[in-house]
Specification:
351 residues, alpha/beta, Rossmann fold, 2 domains, six-stranded mixed β-sheet, six-stranded parallel β-sheet, 44% helix, binds nicotinamide-adenine-dinucleotide
């Protein structure tokens, strides 16, 4: 299958396939848009069952980065990369081979961490290409994006709760968090400090045990997290978990989490709306890490300014939800319309 034939193809500017015989590297870099600036987005290392599955993921993820960066007000475009490999094969040599591919793109695409690629791996990549962001704290480098992503997600969740449940106070609010990894655990911390009651699920039992011990969370089996009797469902694991069953099954009236590409397909946004479930679009509320790490690309870092911009996610989420109500469309459609407006304005503006 060529990228043009993939259902996820959305006018991407550039899609590159890379192989390396020596390390067995198989990687795809997708640049969705550079209208606002160089394409920026992390690298996911995952044992995809097929090249078509990897292509579908990278096309969707890179497009979402365009909308995320646009709505965050960043002068950056959207891109993403995937390395098709089992994490047990994540050797320095494989990472170096991938970094060489990014370098060859000459700054059109900047890479960073994502699922399967942590901060340590990003440091390895940075030894072989200049086009890496989200590096460890050293000088002006920005460090692990996860706490910043969690901060923004918390602000977005708060806005969605205010919009749907009419309350600013989170004390006693019941929240089910799916995936208590880097972002999910930090989000749990903020929710716990605000008085929320947590239900958590993770395919890794140790992660559940950690959240139970730290926050008094109640662990439930991964397959039943959407059935939990809660006010808010917060997907913080992988994408696509909100599927055709979710609108009927979910007891929560608000969905607000950090995972990328949460809706299995966009029609589910309409079904959620019809059931009175408010979905805070992932690419609106999970931009905190990008707002922080993007400073590596822009070459200036002012932590206070970054935190101020992350906190604006609260009001931006309210704006998106109000627009969805006004235009009688899904919240995702409203957010996309706002992001597209920003691209159109930038494309028409003198360079
Ligand atoms: P992570 O790998 O640290 O955490 C993910 C957690 O989800 C892991 O603990 C994993 O065991 C668990 N998990 C996997 N499948 C699951 C399932 N079916 N049910 C329950 N738990 C499951 O990743 P992360 O950095 O915390 O990112 C989480 C999500 O947020 C990803 O979708 C990522 O793309 C997105 N995101 C992360 C950032 C960031 O700053 N790290 C920024 C934007 C978006």
């Amino acid at each position: 299958m060529t990228p043009f034939d993939a259902p996820e193809f959305a006018g991407h500017e550039h899609v590159s396939f890379f192989t390396d015989d020596g390390t067995g590297l198989r990687a795809i870099v997708a640049v969705h848009s550079t209208v606002l600036g160089p394409a920026a987005g992390g690298c996911r290392l995952w044992p995809y069952p097929s090249t078509a599955a990897a292509l579908a993921d990278v096309l969707r993820l890179s497009e979402a980065m365009t909308w995320k960066n646009a709505l965050a007000g960043l002068p950056l475009g959207g891109g993403k990369s995937v390395v098709i490999a089992d994490p047990s094969r994540r050797t320095p040599e494989l990472l170096a081979a991938f970094a060489g591919c990014v370098e060859r793109l000459g700054g059109r695409y900047w890479t960073a961490e994502d699922v399967g690629v942590g901060i340590d791996e990003v440091e390895v990549l940075a030894r072989h290409t200049r086009y890496v962001f989200g590096l460890q704290h050293s000088g002006q480098k920005t460090g692990d994006p996860s706490p910043f992503t969690a901060r923004g997600t918390f602000r977005g969740l708060r806005a969605a709760v205010r919009h749907r449940l009419g309350r600013d106070d989170l004390d006693g609010l019941r929240v089910a968090v799916q995936g208590v990894g880097h972002v999910g655990f930090e989000l749990c911390r903020q929710l716990h400090e605000a008085g929320a009651k947590l239900t958590v699920a993770d395919t890794n039992p140790a992660a559940v045990a950690r959240a139970e011990a730290a926050f008094g969370a109640i662990g439930v089996p991964a397959a039943s997290i959407q059935d939990a009797d809660v006010d808010v469902y917060s997907p913080c694991a992988l994408g696509g978990t909100i599927d055709a069953d979710t609108p009927n099954r979910l007891r929560a009236r608000v969905i607000a989490g950090a995972a990328n590409n949460q809706l299995a397909h966009s029609a589910i946004g309409e079904a959620l709306r019809a059931r009175g479930i408010v979905y805070a679009p992932d690419f609106v509320i999970n931009a905190g890490g990008m707002l922080n790490a993007g400073c590596d690309i822009l070459g200036r870092y002012d932590r206070e300014d970054v935190l101020r911009r992350i906190d604006l996610i609260h009001d931006r989420t309210l704006e998106v939800l109000a627009r969805a109500d006004r235009d009688d469309v899904s919240t995702e459609a409203a957010a996309l319309a706002m992001a597209r407006e920003r691209l159109r304005t930038a494309a028409g503006a003198p360079r």
